[in-house]
Design goal:
The structure is a single chain. By secondary structure, the protein is an all-alpha fold. It has a single domain, classed as Growth Hormone, Chain: A (Up-down Bundle), CATH 1.20.1250. Helix content is 80%, strand content 0%. Helix 15 packs across helix 18. The longest helix is centred in the last third of the chain and has 37 residues.
C-alpha cells in the first residue's frame, strides 16, 4: 500500500479512539418501555406462582389438620426449589439466551400450577411446589442479568425497581386472589385461580419482551461456572449484598407466613377472607421499590439500607401491640422497608458484577430465597410455640444482623478512604 493510500484510509486519531455508541435501552425509547413492561409482567407471574399457597395457609391448616410450621412448607418448598435451581438455570441462560430461558421457565412453572389443585395431600403438594420453584428458577436471575445487559446504566436502578415492583404486585395479587377464592370455595380453587392469573402474565411477558441485543452465547462449562462463582464469593461487597438479601427476606418470610394466623386468632378474630386482604399492603412495596433508586441517589447505597433496616425494625416493634391498627401499620412499615432494602441490594449486585452477571444475580437470589425458606419456617415454628412475639423476634434478629453487616461495610469504606494516598492537583 502506498503512503498516500495509508493516509486516506486511516481513521483520524480521535475517531479511532472514540468508543462504540452505547445503544442500550434508555428512558423514553419504545424498547425501554417494552422491556420494563415485560419484566413487570414476569415479576407478576413469578410471584403469583411462587407464593400461591401463602395466602391460604390458615385454610390449609384447617382442611388438612396441619400446624403453621407444616403448612408453611408449601411456601418454603417452592422458594427452596427456586434457590437450588438458580445456578443451573443461569448457566443455561448463558448458553441459550436470556429470553428463551425466561420464557421456558415461566411456561413450565405455569403448567405445574395447573396440577396443584389436584394434589391429594400435603406430601404431594410440597413435592409439586418444590418442582414448581425449580422450574421458576430460570426467570429471576436471568431477568436481572437481562436488565443489566440491555438497560443503560443510568436507568438500571429505576428499571430494577420497576421489576421488583412487579414482584410486589404479583405477590399481592396472587395472595389476595388465592386467599379470597379459598375462603369462599376452598384451597384447591384458590390455587386454580392463581394458575390462571400467572398464565395471563406469562403471555404478556412473551409478547412484550424485546430481543436481547447485548447477549453473547457461551458454552456451558461446569469448571468455568465454578470459577465464576468462586470469584463472586471472594468479592466482599457481593458477599455483603448476598447476606443482606437473605436477612431481609428472612423477615418477610417470618412475617407473612404467620400474619394470617395471627389475624384470625385472638384478640382480632378476623374472618379468613378479611385476613387474606392484608396482602393489599403489598401496594406499599410497589411504591417503595420504585423509589429505592431515588433514595440511593440521595443517601447513597448504605444510607438507603440504614433507612430500610430502621423502617422494617420499627414495623416489627409496632406490630407487637395487641391493637389491630398497630398490627396493620406495623405490616405497612415492614413491607415498605423490605422492598426498599431488596431493591437497593439487588440493583447494587448488577452494578458491582462486571462479568458473570447471571451468576452474580443467581447467587444473590439463592441467598434471598434461602432466607425466605429459613425465615418462613423458623417464624412459623416460633409462632406455633410463643405466638406473634416469637415470629417478630425472628424478624428483629435478622434486622440486627443486617444492621451489623451494613455498619461493617461503612467502617470498611471509611478506612479505605483514610488510607488512600492523597491525590495532588
Amino acid at each position: 500500500m502506498q503512503p498516500s493510500d495509508t493516509r486516506a484510509s486511516a481513521p483520524a486519531p480521535d475517531a479511532a479512539a472514540a468508543p462504540a455508541p452505547d445503544d442500550r435501552h434508555r428512558p423514553g425509547g419504545r424498547d425501554f418501555r417494552r422491556a420494563n413492561l415485560a419484566l413487570f409482567a414476569a415479576g407478576i407471574a413469578t410471584f403469583v406462582l411462587l407464593y400461591s399457597t401463602q395466602g391460604l395457609l390458615p385454610v390449609l391448616s384447617a382442611d388438612l389438620d396441619l400446624t403453621p410450621g407444616q403448612a408453611s412448607w408449601t411456601a418454603s418448598a417452592a422458594t427452596l426449589g427456586l434457590a437450588l435451581g438458580l445456578l443451573p438455570a443461569s448457566a443455561l441462560s448463558d448458553r441459550y439466551g436470556r429470553t428463551a430461558v425466561m420464557t421456558a421457565s415461566v411456561l413450565a412453572a405455569s403448567a405445574l400450577a395447573v396440577a396443584l389443585p389436584f394434589a391429594p395431600g400435603l406430601t404431594t403438594l410440597v413435592a409439586l411446589r418444590a418442582l414448581q420453584g425449580a422450574a421458576l428458577a430460570g426467570l429471576p436471575a436471568t431477568a436481572m442479568a437481562y436488565l443489566a445487559e440491555e438497560i443503560h446504566p443510568s436507568a438500571l436502578a429505576s428499571a430494577m425497581g420497576l421489576y421488583v415492583a412487579g414482584n410486589s404486585i404479583g405477590g399481592m395479587g396472587g395472595r389476595l386472589l388465592s386467599g379470597w377464592t379459598s375462603a369462599a370455595l376452598g384451597w384447591r380453587w384458590g390455587l386454580a385461580a392463581s394458575a390462571a392469573l400467572a398464565l395471563l402474565a406469562a403471555l404478556a411477558f412473551r409478547l412484550l419482551i424485546p430481543a436481547a441485543r447485548h447477549f453473547t452465547p457461551a458454552p456451558v462449562d461446569a469448571r468455568a461456572l465454578a470459577r465464576t462463582v468462586g470469584r463472586h464469593l471472594r468479592n466482599p461487597l457481593l458477599v455483603r449484598l448476598y447476606a443482606l438479601g437473605l436477612l431481609f427476606m428472612a423477615v418477610f418470610g417470618a412475617v407473612y407466613n404467620t400474619a394470617g394466623y395471627r389475624l384470625i386468632a385472638a384478640p382480632f378474630h378476623l374472618p379468613e377472607s378479611v385476613a387474606a386482604s392484608i396482602f393489599a399492603i403489598y401496594l406499599v412495596g410497589t411504591g417503595t421499590s420504585a423509589a429505592a433508586g431515588r433514595l440511593s441517589a440521595r443517601l447513597g447505597r448504605r444510607g438507603a439500607l440504614y433507612v430500610s433496616i430502621g423502617v422494617t425494625a420499627a414495623g416489627l416493634l409496632l406490630s407487637l401491640a395487641d391493637s389491630l391498627a398497630c398490627a396493620l401499620l406495623g405490616l405497612v412499615l415492614i413491607t415498605a422497608g423490605f422492598f426498599a432494602g431488596h431493591a437497593t441490594a439487588s440493583s447494587a449486585v448488577g452494578r458491582t458484577a462486571t462479568e458473570g452477571r447471571a451468576q452474580a444475580s443467581a447467587l444473590y437470589l439463592i441467598a434471598y430465597y434461602l432466607g425466605n425458606s429459613l425465615g418462613g419456617t423458623l417464624g412459623a415454628d416460633a409462632y406455633h410455640a410463643t405466638g406473634w412475639p416469637g415470629a417478630a423476634t425472628v424478624g428483629l434478629t435478622a434486622m440486627a444482623l443486617a444492621a451489623a453487616v451494613t455498619l461493617y461495610a461503612t467502617r470498611q469504606a471509611h478506612t479505605a478512604r483514610r488510607s488512600a494516598p492523597a491525590v495532588r492537583a
